[in-house]
Design a protein that fits this description.
The complex is a heterodimer of chains A (301) and B (392).
Chain A: H1 2-32, H2 39-60, H3 69-91, H4 100-122, E1 138-140, E2 146-148, H5 149-171, H6 173-183, H7 185-190, H8 195-220, H9 227-242, H10 247-267, H11 270-287
Antiparallel strand pairs in A: 1-2
Helix pairs in contact in A: 1-5, 1-8, 1-9, 1-10, 2-3, 2-4, 2-8, 2-9, 3-8, 5-6, 5-8, 9-10, 10-11
Chain B: H1 6-16, H2 21-50, H3 53-78, H4 86-106, H5 112-116, H6 132-155, H7 162-181, H8 183-186, E1 192-193, E2 197-198, E3 201-202, H9 206-232, H10 234-251, H11 256-282, E4 284-285, H12 292-305, H13 310-330, H14 335-349, H15 353-391
Helix pairs in contact in B: 2-15, 3-9, 3-11, 3-12, 3-13, 4-6, 4-11, 6-11, 9-11, 12-13, 12-15, 13-15
The chains are: A mainly alpha (301), B mainly alpha (392).
């Protein structure tokens, strides 16, 4: 029983990271019809920011405050990824609206460049980020059931991000504009929404969330230049499964993929689990081709 | 007398120049194309006489890639479906062939990697691969069947565009993890290697290598000709129509799903064929060659060469791979920068690739020459007109 609970807990913690990664993808894809393959590299940038902050704190900050480095790295990672996302949108992505397949190839080129850049700057071997001491250990429920603080912290962080994103999307003017543009771009533009600026904001915002996800991932294990590629395809599957345009879709998509993946991994093996989950997703799409939750529209071509 | 010179100047202009300029440009383009094709064919046929054995087998591999690129161009350039999963079809073809080569090399014994990973008996699905003909058939059939199945399940539900690309990419991840994970059956990360002979012919002999090279040239020629025929026919027009407006095609009473599934299956088959040639020439196949990066590189060949033209796909595959060899030999670090930069530049500035650049260039040259001729004839005419006016 407790083993089952532990699996469920692990599944949820995997899901929460997937969700954070997928949210940015879902926003850019739903809003701008852009497939951002460089999204994984923004995760990597977030993770390396955590690493850099740790190095900085080790060198220049009194040891008593060292543990605060992780808290400092989260806004930093968001800011850095936000900036790079903004730059990427201004220089490249804005030329590719309405050409989703081209955007996929071009941003994949960017992803290659960023990966090689990270390899040149930080070296190919993985770097380890030491978790702050207040995240060591866990809550012991029973002998077998120990919930590590790290994972609890990540789940909390994701929940916080989710609440902020919800408030932004559904309770603020900017978010309302964004949802309007997602549903009918021309109409929103007619009614005075500056879709141009909205695009840049949304892209940068999604990138920033990826940066936070990178910080969270840095807690779980060593980080390397190819870190993003491990998550990007799964995150895209979340988008495909969850449907586009609603937060709830991504939430359900991430939860089902994360939990199913860990469950099958426990029952069979990691490789077979991937095959089963993929087959299930294809099977599910036979039933609901546009994902779990999607905004209905009558548009055809 | 006050008649403007133009009305009677125009028929005269037409008499001296029976072919209008745009058609002349097309004619020039056609002549340039024929000349280029003949040069390439001659160079390819003569290559064994001036290339070293190593370079020749590299070129042979690129020809195999060109076959695959034609397949990608059919599905992407003509039908508008971007598949990021062609590495899988290529890899499956190569693995099927390699399974036979491995069995042939181990001479009735259990293949070495199986005994290393504790498999004691030849798995059932390995057994039929003892027959070379079955292996060849499977190397084409397995990728075709997988492509048809995936295509049917997704296209039927009108999953398309980026969603399909993502699903095909997930297929890559799934297959690669499966192949790495099932080490006892697939050789794991190392893949299959140490082959010896096919149908009793030693693969390491120089004569075999030249033979394989010519086989690749021949197959590429056949595939290219068939592809030309297909895209020039009514069938090809339906494909282009699906690319440009699928719902309209549906309204016209066609069934786009059948066309798309068929093209996707054909393109999977071509990838399998390329895999066969590759494994015969390279002597190894491993999951690394069907992973995400190679799969997307395959798309890049077509993008660089120019999607929507078969010759573009072939050139793209040859040129990109030559560039890759050159760059990774001289700057191994910089290759990824270069590759990434190419993606961005080609998509932003050259959406029609080298083929587009080439045909635009020929047209521009031809119209420029035309304009030049016209200008000189114009000045002649003006002189004439002036003379007649003064005479009048």
């Amino acid at each position: 029983m407790s083993l089952l609970l532990l699996q469920l807990f692990n599944g949820i913690s995997v899901s929460s990271i997937l969700l954070l990664v997928a949210l940015g993808l879902a926003i850019t894809f739903g809003l701008m019809n852009i497939i951002n393959m460089a999204h994984g590299e923004l995760i990597m940038i977030g993770a390396y920011t955590a690493y850099m902050t740790q190095q900085f704190f080790q060198k220049y900050v009194p040891e008593a405050y060292f543990d605060a480095y992780f808290l400092a790295s989260i806004p930093l990672a968001f800011a850095l990824a936000f900036g790079i996302g903004w730059l990427l949108e201004t220089l490249l992505v804005r030329h590719l609206y309405k050409r989703p397949l081209d955007s996929l190839i071009a941003t994949w080129g960017v992803s290659l460049i960023l990966q090689q850049l990270a390899r040149t700057i930080f070296g190919a071997p993985n770097k380890a980020v030491k978790a702050p001491s207040w995240l060591e250990g866990g809550i012991t429920l029973t002998n077998e059931l120990i919930l590590p603080y790290k994972r609890l912290f990540i789940i909390g962080l994701v929940a916080l991000c989710l609440v902020v994103i919800y408030l932004y999307l559904y309770r603020s003017r900017g978010g309302r504009n964004m949802r309007a543009a997602m549903q009918n771009r021309q109409m929103a533009a007619c009614l005075g929404v500056s879709t141009r600026r909205l695009d840049a904001q949304a892209f940068a915002f999604g990138s920033g969330i990826a940066g936070i996800a990178g910080c969270a991932i840095a807690l779980l294990g060593p980080i390397g230049p190819a870190l993003g590629t491990y998550y990007i395809v799964d995150a895209f599957m979340v988008v495909v499964l969850g449907g586009i345009g609603k937060l709830v879709g991504s939430l359900f998509g991430a939860l089902s993929i994360g939990v199913l993946n860990t469950a099958f991994e426990y029952a069979t093996s990691a490789t077979v689990a991937k095959v089963i989950v993929f087959t299930l997703i294809i099977a599910f799409l036979q039933w609901k081709p546009s994902g779990l939750v999607s905004v209905r529209s009558r548009s055809l071509d | 007398m006050n008649n403007p010179p133009m009305p009677d100047a125009r028929p005269r202009f037409k008499r001296t120049r029976p072919v209008p300029a745009p058609e002349r440009a097309e004619g020039a383009l056609l002549r340039a194309k024929i000349a280029l094709t003949l040069t390439i064919v001659a160079l390819l046929l003569a290559a064994p006489y001036f290339l070293s054995e190593f370079r020749l087998s590299l070129l042979g591999k690129y020809l195999a890639f060109a076959i695959l690129a034609i397949g990608i161009d059919l599905i992407w350039g003509y039908t508008g479906i971007l598949s990021l999963g062609h590495g899988v079809f290529f890899g499956l073809g190569a693995y099927c062939m390699a399974m036979h080569l491995k069995l042939a090399a181990s001479g009735g014994q259990l293949p070495d990697f199986m005994s290393w990973s504790g498999v004691e008996k030849l798995p059932w699905f390995w057994e039929p691969f003892a027959s070379p003909w079955f292996a060849l058939l499977a190397a084409i059939g397995v990728p075709t069947a997988l492509a048809a199945a995936l295509g049917y399940l997704t296209f039927r539900n009108r999953i398309r565009g980026a969603f399909f690309s993502i699903l095909s990419q997930a297929l890559v991840i799934v297959t690669v993890t499966l192949f790495i994970g099932q080490q006892g059956f697939t050789g794991g990360t190392n893949g299959l290697t140490n082959f010896d002979s096919f149908l009793g012919i030693k693969l390491s002999e120089p004569a075999t290598k030249i033979g394989l090279y010519y086989a690749a040239v021949l197959l590429l020629g056949i595939v290219y000709a068939l592809g030309r025929f297909a895209v020039g026919s009514r069938f090809g027009r339906v494909l282009t129509a699906i690319r440009d407006g699928e719902n309209r095609v549906r309204f016209l009473g066609y069934n786009p799903v059948a066309y798309k599934v068929f093209v996707f299956a054909v393109s999977g088959a071509l990838a399998g064929l390329a895999g066969i040639l590759f494994v015969m020439m390279e002597g190894i196949i491993s999951p690394a060659q069907m992973n995400i990066v190679p799969s997307i590189e395959m798309v890049l060949w077509v993008a660089i060469g120019g999607r929507g033209t078969l010759s573009g796909a072939v050139f793209g595959a040859l040129l990109t791979n030559c560039a890759k060899t050159y760059f990774s030999e001289s700057y191994p670090e910089g290759w990824l920068f270069f590759l990434g930069g190419l993606f961005v530049i080609v998509v932003l500035f050259l959406p029609r690739g080298i083929a587009g650049l080439w045909s635009d260039g020929i047209r521009w040259l031809s119209t420029r020459r035309d304009r030049h001729d016209k200008r000189s004839s114009d000045s002649g005419r003006n002189a004439e007109g002036g003379a007649s006016a003064s005479a009048g």
